[in-house]
Design brief:
- The chain is mostly helical.
- It folds into 2 domains: 1-39 and 105-233; 242-430, MFS general substrate transporter like domains (Growth Hormone, Chain: A), CATH 1.20.1250.20.
- It contains 19 helices and 2 strands.
- It is globular and about 75 Å long.
């Protein structure tokens, strides 16, 4: 926990941190684009199965004739599938109204690699960034709407260029500028300290103080060595931390289980509604845009609510919003005629996603602050793994026949309610310094119990 004090001394939020936000959170904008690109790419454009003998698509075999969406099964009749030209998706590109198509295997493998790398980056970027920020500014990592900005940009891009392959090329090109971060983005100060690489850790402090034009504490190296010694004494056997450590001991085990369950439920709701944009009434591109932009004010709001009410109660509040809106969708879908329910259901679905997004922003911070540096990535990674499981379940929950929304949103409302109840028993991390080791201790006010450190920092600031 000494490293938190060093960061506060050299500037908890200044030029250096702004640079970190750009190069660490910037790519997260593109991750949202990459993960939800399938909400467009996998949609089915209008298609018609026309007899091969048809001279052309004319008034006789007009594309407004739904009869020709049924392909004859007789061996004596051959047909051709004709797609609407308003968009090019993988369905039209690989002819996926059939059981098999020519190059879908390559597409599947590459999408798997994109998903795997995106998942890896999501695990690392958030804990990595908060280890450079001061206590009051850690909520900023979840409050900057980079993810939803990526979704809105994707909606605009897919509307302007409705071609799945072009969207992937654009996405790849936008990643290139962020490779420049390799040359000056440093390793985590917290991580270097607990690994005993104190000289390198001090160089990171030098870099931070130079960028922020602040003097570092005179006993910086001493403090870093104290962190290294504490970790060394705790791990005298020399063994490495594993995922078992996030369940070792009841005090951390129950927190890990709740965090993972909540993340799985949030992913189920968030991606289920996002990928179900095509099932909502109205224009597909507008729905994708609205599902993204609705989170902007909510995400920004979490910076203030996290600091004012704490991470736990911020999450509970948003879970209440998501629960109410989800059950509202189910009630409207059951009681209001289909001609009149479209706009109402769209609004309530947006509010449900708004609640889930706000709760996730709060839980991202809560999860990162719950674990000490030595297992922070492990805990955050386990939560992300649970989230991926929820994301895999989502299509099945939202794949009800005939566009039925009652059952999916009853499931959504129920899971959000359970998450809200579980969140109440979680311990808040508001104003607590980031623990570096498994044995780190703080007092009830969250201040580091070392008077000498505080005095040195105060003298430095003067």
């Amino acid at each position: 926990m000494h490293t938190d004090d060093i960061i506060e001394a050299v500037g908890g939020m200044s030029r250096f941190q702004i640079l970190m936000v750009v190069f660490i959170l910037g790519p997260k904008m593109l991750m949202g684009w990459g993960m939800l690109i399938m909400s467009f790419a996998a949609t089915t454009p209008d298609w018609w199965c026309l007899p091969a003998t048809a001279p052309s698509v004319d008034e006789t075999y007009g594309m407004n004739n739904v009869t020709f969406k049924l392909c004859p099964t007789s061996d004596n009749i051959t047909c051709q599938v004709v797609y609407s030209q308003d968009k090019n998706t993988i369905v039209s590109g690989f002819n996926l109204v059939a059981a098999f198509s020519v190059n879908w295997q390559m597409f599947t493998v590459l999408r798997f690699l994109i998903g795997m790398m995106t998942g890896s980056l999501l695990v690392g970027c958030y804990p990595y960034l908060i280890e450079f920020l001061g206590r009051k500014f850690r909520p900023l990592a979840s409050a900057i709407p980079v993810w939803v900005t990526g979704l809105c940009a994707f909606a605009l891009s897919s509307w302007l260029r409705p071609d799945w392959s072009h969207q992937h090329i654009i996405l790849a090109a936008l990643h290139l500028p962020f490779f420049a971060g390799w040359f000056f983005v440093p390793e985590s100060l917290h991580w270097l300290a607990v690994k005993g690489r104190t000289d390198e850790a001090e160089k990171v402090v030098d870099q931070m103080s130079r960028y922020n034009k602040r003097e570092k504490p005179t006993n910086t190296l001493q403090l870093l060595k104290q962190v290294a010694e504490e970790e060394k004494s705790l791990r005298s056997s020399g063994s490495k931390y594993t995922y078992l450590d996030i369940y070792r001991g009841w005090s951390i085990c129950w927190k890990s289980l709740i965090i993972q369950f909540v993340w799985a439920c949030l992913s189920l709701v968030y991606y289920g509604i996002s990928f179900g944009a095509g099932r909502l009434a109205g224009n597909l591109y507008l729905n994708i845009f609205l599902l993204g932009v609705v989170e902007v004010p909510t995400t920004v709001l979490t910076f203030f609510t996290n600091n004012k009410f704490g991470r736990k109660w911020t999450a509970v509040g948003f879970f209440a919003v998501a629960t109410s809106a989800a059950f509202g969708v189910a009630i409207i879908a059951k009681t209001v005629s289909k001609d009149e329910q479209g706009v109402i259901i769209n609004v309530l679905a947006l509010v449900t996603k708004l609640g889930a997004g706000g709760a996730w922003a709060a839980y991202g911070l809560l999860a990162s602050e719950t674990y000490p540096t030595v297992i922070r990535n492990l805990g955050y990674g386990a939560a992300n793994t649970a989230a991926r499981l929820g994301g895999m379940i989502a299509p099945y929950v939202f794949a009800g026949g005939d566009g039925d929304l009652v059952v999916p949103f009853v499931i959504v409302g129920s899971t959000m309610a359970v998450c809200g109840v579980l969140s109440v028993v979680m311990k808040d991390t508001k104003d607590q310094p980031l623990a570096d080791t498994m044995g780190g201790q703080v007092n009830t006010n969250g201040d580091v119990m070392m008077v000498a450190i505080q005095e040195d920092i105060e003298n430095t600031e003067l």
